[in-house]
Design goal:
With 324 residues, this protein is an all-alpha fold. It contains 15 helices and no strands.
């Protein structure tokens, strides 16, 4: 930000795409596939749902790419709602995101991060106070990095996201090349205990975050060109990783062994490589959650707050709402 309070355009397309990937890749891909397997009873339907979810997310990313290119200002949907429906709707949306949407996501993700860290440091898991304290320390330390200087935060974002993507790609490649799985598992079936429509909700939740780069549009260099590239590239990369991971789960486990499993990624890794693989999965989970919760959520949260603060329409909207 310069001396006049205007955001400087320091973020390149790689960092913007990293924000998208980090926002999308949380714990969902490592934990929801077991419930989808229980509801559908078919590996092919599980894979189809993850592919459909990716197509829906890509359609959303393309829509936001058009909006962001036309209105390249920080704030995401707050800016778009303000222009389309007026300041009152944008005002309500901004405060909802500020107090519920991002705050809840940050809290849940960081508590999850410390729970997984307890795999390596049991004292964290055994003490509720330590559990919350570590989550708070992680939040403030990594938020501080982004308050200091955007390029430094961008470098950390690229490192965290790159490590997560590389780790998942390595896991998938090693699983199919050297893991103790079977392609016969793709033909297994089990009784379905739900519906594919309901399962798609789990999938879409795991894909949420595809709009992340729009929140920092005011800081992206050449946003008309780079914002669409970041949104589409980030969403496409995550779709490929998600479908590949679920194919690996199906390769590692028959559908009845996946069914209802929360820690399906850990169970699949153990089946493919043995018990030592559980630690590798925990590290991947920690990297994914750290990249998602701390960079993407705190960055988006701050940009919405700034856009709302600079909008004179928010003051008028608040006055209108008090009259209702």
């Amino acid at each position: 930000m310069d001396s006049c309070g205007k955001l400087r355009r320091l973020i390149d397309v790689r960092t913007a795409a990293s924000v998208v990937i980090a926002s999308m890749m949380g714990a969902g891909i490592f934990t929801t596939s077991g419930f989808i397997a229980r509801d559908t009873g078919s590996p092919s339907i599980v894979l189809a749902l993850w592919l459909v979810g990716g197509v829906i997310a890509l359609a959303g990313a393309l829509s936001y790419a058009e909006l962001g290119a036309a209105m390249p200002r920080a704030g995401g949907e707050y800016v778009y709602l303000r222009e389309a429906y007026g300041p009152a709707v944008a005002y309500l949306s901004g405060w909802t995101s500020f107090f519920i949407g991002f705050s809840g996501a940050i809290a849940a993700a960081l508590l999850g991060l410390t729970a997984y860290a307890g795999h390596f440091v049991p004292e964290i898991k055994d003490s509720p106070v330590a559990h919350k304290l570590v989550a708070l320390v992680a939040l403030w330390l990594l938020t501080l990095v982004h308050l200091l200087r955007t390029p430094r935060g961008g470098a950390i974002q690229r490192i965290l996201t790159g490590a997560t993507v590389a780790g998942i790609a390595l896991l998938v490649a090693a699983g199919f090349l050297a893991g103790r799985g079977s392609f016969a598992n793709f033909a297994t079936s089990a009784s379905a205990h739900g519906s594919a429509t309901v399962s798609l909700i789990f999938v879409l939740y795991a894909y949420s975050g595809w709009n992340a780069a729009s929140y920092i549009a005011g800081e992206i260099r050449d946003p008309a060109a780079n914002l669409p590239r970041a949104l589409v590239a980030g969403t496409a990369i995550v779709t490929i990783l998600y479908v590949s991971l679920n194919a690996l789960y199906a390769y590692a486990l028959p559908i009845n062994a996946m069914s209802g499993e929360l820690a399906v990624a850990e169970k699949a890794a153990v089946a493919l490589f043995g018990g030592v693989a559980a630690s590798a999965i925990m590290i991947l989970l920690i990297l994914a959650i750290a990249a998602s919760a701390v960079r993407a959520c705190t960055t988006q949260w701050r940009r919405i707050g700034r856009s709302r603060a600079l909008s004179r329409g928010s003051i008028r909207a608040a006055a209108c709402l008090r009259m209702l």
